[in-house]
Design a protein that fits this description.
Shape: flat
Number of domains: 1
Largest sheet: 2 strands, antiparallel
Distance between the termini: 7 Å
Strand content: 5-15%
Radius of gyration: 10 Å
Strand order of the largest sheet: 1-2
Number of strands: 2
């Protein structure tokens, strides 16, 4: 998931809505990164 041209407020809303941890939310705020897969508890982020 990438938050393109989003605001800090929008990122925090997305983080709360999807129960994202801080690292996953930070990754989502930076577009144009290499794809990766991260596991956070019972959730996998692609």
């Amino acid at each position: 998931m990438v938050l393109r041209d989003g605001t800090e407020y929008g990122l925090r809303q997305m983080q709360r809505e999807f129960s994202m941890n801080n690292l996953a939310a930070e990754d989502a705020s930076h577009g144009l990164q290499r794809p990766n897969i991260e596991e956070c508890g019972d959730t996998m982020f692609f």
